[in-house]
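Preliminary data (for renewal application), flavin mononucleotide complex.
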Amino acid sequence: MSENTTPRVRLNAFDMNCVVHQSPGLWRHPEDHARDYNTIGYWTHLAQVLEKGLFDSLFLADVLGTYDVYADTNETPLRAGAQVPVNDPFLLVSAMAAVTKNLGFGVTAGTAYEHPYPFARRLATLDHLTEGRVGWNIVTGYLPSAARNMGNDDQMEHDERYDMADEYLEVIYKLLEGSWEDDAVVADKESGLFVDPEKVHEIGHEGRWFKVPGIAITEPSTQRTPLLFQAGASKRGLKFAGENAEAVFVNSPTKETLAQQVGKIRDAAEAAGRDRHDIKIYSMLTPIVADTEEAAQAKFEDYRSYADINGALALLSGWTGIDMSQYGPDDVIGEDVKSNAIQSSVETFQKASGEEGNPWTIRQLAEWIGVGGFGPVAVGTGKQVADQLVEWVRDTDVDGFNIAYAITPGTFEDVVEYIVPELQAQGAYPTSYEEGSLRQKLFGRGDRLPEQHKGAGFRVGQGSLV
Ligand SMILES: Cc1cc2nc3c(=O)[nH]c(=O)nc-3n(C[C@H](O)[C@H](O)[C@H](O)COP(=O)(O)O)c2cc1C
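Predicted structure:
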């Protein structure tokens, strides 16, 4: 990208239907409202804040298990409220859609534990109700406790989880892209013909994990397949992303590691026969802003004083699959440690270095996670942070940022008040939304999956169906 042009910076918000998402301990802060996650009012207010700030979407993370990896017990995550208790993210979307017109919703759901048939219906339902503003964050899971509570001894092996996800997606594509032709619904009151049966096709899917002979039971929605988000960044995860993802969330503590990750994702898209920029990439970041640099720094110190180190270690253990209680605070994690959880997160922190180039100790990792999870924190005035965002986009080819909160909705309100106007002043951010569905807003080439996307190959007439 030329040094002279100001790149477009995209913003996405990162939240979860629980009290502690990425900043363990900060629910105790007097200005934090994460405790209100059980109320519709919290979510509708947040959606309106984000829409005011012209965010692309709200990404709702989710897990179906607990972080009992730490010391092999639920005690620490429960005490800290570390992503437990956690509610269903899908049920939040209708309420938020009702009070907004443009905000997108990237909702997380795993491919291991719910059959794709009812799930396809839920996706289609929300895509109808939001008029094409829904996205699905496809995850393969990382918590063994989720697998156990679904009746398995442990979760599947890492790469095999992605093999299953491949078939899961195939069923979803067949149902949402291939079962109903666009003009299948006739709704002719005179003749009484509602659906033309000739234009609705059985998908006849029979695979290793799923057998789905029949038709989809929903009619085509605005996007058909909702915008596909993904966040895995391991070698196998990258292949999956290259083939399927339209937006990828990454998590990199430094600009250098981010640039490498972005390059790998763009290579993976190309390897799957797509354009390098067919995937929008958002990097996690927690901004802490105020009127002056000193005030922002004071805000950061104030937030840090609420961080819960044990809660951070519980989260870290779950993300990496490594029980951090076995280490002392000054130990470092060896390079030979292998993970069956989020492999990319293990690689990231193994490579991460302290100021002197030494690998981080357990204490340093926990303190880092204390505010904003594993992503970087940007502290400063609105202009300073906006400048930093523009610089990161320019230097790494990332598309934008997945904004995690220190306190909610305070961090998001600060972004809208301090950072968005600065980005707009630099020409790096829009002043209004584009028209149309989430996919159209992001790529400007229609509501449906583009022709070169794997899912488009499952459309009627493409020969993939029986
Ligand atoms: C930034 C980021 C956010 C993620 N969010 C979730 C999530 O909300 N729920 C979940 O089950 N997995 C989540 N994951 C995990 C991945 O989606 C992935 O399915 C899995 O853990 C394997 O990742 P890997 O390919 O990096 O090993 C996230 C991963 C990253 C890097």
